[in-house]
Each structure stands twice: as C-alpha cells, then as structure tokens.
Write a structure and sequence with these properties.
Elements lengths: L9 E5 L4 H5 L3 H8 L4 E6 L5 H9 L5 E5 L1 H14 L5 E5 L5 H7 L4 H6 L5 E5 L2 E3 L2 E3 L2 E5 H13 L7 H15 L4 E5 L7 E3 L1 E5 L8 E6 L4 H13 L6 E4 L1 E5 L5 E4 L2 E4 L3 E6 L4 E5 L3
Parallel strand pairs: 1-2, 1-3, 3-4
Antiparallel strand pairs: 5-18, 6-7, 6-17, 8-11, 8-15, 9-10, 9-14, 11-12, 12-13, 14-17, 15-16
C-alpha cells in the first residue's frame, strides 16, 4: 500500500474486445498510454483477478486505469469490491458509449486523464447493486431493457440488420411497455406492492445512500400522454423519488439493463446501493 502523497503508480487494465479496439482506431493511442509515466504495469482484463489487485495494491500500485467500455469498468469495479481494497479507479474512454467516463470527466481524452492522474484525488463512489451485480450509472427493468436489447442487435451488424429479427425485438418491447407485469415495493412505499411495465434507477449522487427512481405503468397510448402531462403539471403524483432499495418480481426472468447494456436477471430482483464505496480518481479540471 502506498503512502499518501506518493507518486501515482498505475496498473493499466486493457480489454481488447471493447468498442474502440474493435473499430481499429486505437493502436497509436494504446501505445501512448501503455508508455505513460504513470503506468507501471499492463494487465489484460482476462488476466485480472481480485487477488491480483490486492497483491498489487499491497506492493505499491495506487490506482487502476481501465482501457475499456462501461462493461469493462463494471467488471473491474466488481473485482475491486471483492478484493476489499480501496484501490482507486481511473476509467478511460475506450468503449462505444463511455457513459460513466462522460459523467465523471466530460469529454476529456485518455492521455489528458493520465497526465492529471499524478495530482488526482480519490473521491468516494457508492455503486448500485442488482442482485449483487454492480452498476455505476443506471439500471432498468422491463421494457426499457427490451428496447436496449433491440439496439444491441443493431450494433451487431456492419450493414443493415435482418429486418425480421429487429422487428420482433421492437414488437416485444412495445408489448412489454403496455403490460405492467412487474410487481415492486420500495422502502418508501409501505407494505403494498405496486405494478409497473418499466422501472428506471439512476445513481445521480455518487456517494449517496439512495437511488433516484421512476416507475412506468402504461396500459394504452393515452397513459403515455397523461404521464407526460403529470410530469409537467404535478410531478409529485408520479411514482418517482429517492429510495434506499427496491424489490421487484415477475412470473419469469426479467429483461434488465446495467449502464446501458442489456442482460437477463432473475424473476426476483433486489436493487440497492453497496455498503462499501469505491474510489474514483478525480483529476483537476
């Protein structure tokens, strides 16, 4: 473990399957960050384990730079939580969407972030957990996740995707949007369970104990219009606010989304913020 004020010594974790590597425009950039003064060692994501992080942190590595997308950052964050260290993270924009990097650092590039790493201060960030899986920006259940899965299907093809496959995914999303089949309960909703067709949760405050959420319950197109009017005229009527946790269930495994990436989860879901905070390096502006 390094002493406070020690020079920044980073392990650079690289996922060559991330968006920027796949596009083939990163060769010169990855060489420049691998040879950066703050980078002491380079690991491939597949070779990274919680035990390796703990060992390196004990030997003086005092930060993990991550060259990958949002999924890569989540994977490393889970390993850091498992390692039970406070090794700070510095995610770099090497993905397709880079949602977390843009939220934390705006449009700064990888070399600029590394240049500022020497004087960067660790800032606490309490991640969200969906059945134990980490998310760092937002999570969703129900039809928003089905729409994301249709979007991912589009990204799988260089040219036009098969129209039938894409249409089926869009139709499934539309059916789910008007079928409130999710039952949920929050710590602020009392004992009764409510129904929704979609639930969205956001980690707006990095180190808060709460999540911001909104639940959608549509049965027909008129409900969409009425929700829009309620949002403009009386937003307190909407099922939204800050919560500590939410439990949701459905008759079968639910479509879910973590930081913009679609997954499938269990038929019973528990979402809350983690008890232990991660540390993210905050370079000077």
């Amino acid at each position: 473990m390094s002493e406070p004020g020690s020079p920044r010594r980073l392990a650079l974790i690289v996922n060559t399957a991330s968006g920027r590597f796949v596009r083939g425009d990163s060769a010169a950039l990855i060489r420049s960050i691998e040879n950066h003064d703050t980078v002491e060692t380079v690991w491939l994501l597949d070779e990274t384990r919680p035990e390796r992080i703990s060992e390196a942190f004990g030997e003086g590595i005092n930060g993990l730079a991550i060259a990958g997308g949002d999924g890569t950052i989540r994977s490393v964050a889970e390993m850091v939580l498992s390692s039970k260290t406070d090794c700070p993270l510095l995610p770099l924009p090497f993905g397709t969407a880079n949602i977390l990097v843009k939220r934390l650092y705006g449009n700064r590039d990888a070399v600029d972030l590394l240049d500022q790493a020497a004087t960067a201060r660790p800032q606490p960030f309490r991640p969200g957990l969906m059945n134990g899986s980490v998310f760092l920006v937002a999570a969703a259940l129900g039809f928003p996740s089905t729409m994301a899965r249709a979007r991912e299907r589009l990204r799988e093809f260089d040219g036009a995707p098969p129209l039938l496959s894409f249409s089926k995914r869009l139709a499934a999303s539309a059916r789910q949007a008007f079928s409130p089949s999710i039952h949920y309960q929050t710590d602020t909703s009392g004992r009764g369970r409510k129904r929704a067709s979609g639930i969205y949760l956001d980690l707006a405050d990095p180190d808060a104990e709460t999540l911001r959420f909104i639940a959608v319950k549509w049965r027909e197109m008129g409900d969409v219009a009425r929700m829009g009017w309620a949002f403009l005229s009386n937003p307190d009527r909407l099922p939204t606010g800050n919560i500590r946790h939410i439990r949701a269930s459905a008759r079968k495994p639910m479509a879910a989304m973590l930081d913009g990436e679609p997954i499938y989860t269990d038929a019973k879901v528990d979402i809350r913020r983690a008890d232990h905070s991660l540390q993210f390096l905050s370079p000077d502006s």
